[in-house]
Amino acid sequence: MKRYLSVLFPLLLLSFLSTGCLDYTQEGEIRRDGSGSMTIRYSFPPGSVQGRELAQRFDTATIRKDFTFEGYTIKKISSEMKEGDQWSAEMEIEFKTVTDLNA
Fold it and tell me: What pTM was estimated for this model as a whole?
């Protein structure tokens, strides 16, 4: 999780310091045994410079490589550029124990 956050934090900081907006959502489920799943979504509005730049740098293969971590399993990754340069990405993960996310 630390590796994931070390990559995610600069990306988020850059987006907040630059002009434009970032829509970020994170939905999670933790089961009684400590296992669970999480869906993370990023979306930049149409015409966003950051969205265009990130779309060029992060395709699904790059996201999978950069965000692979032994604490969770990536179930699905999608990335798309919509009309007006609106870029979005989504990643679904599963984990065996919530404490593995802190490693």
Answer: 0.66
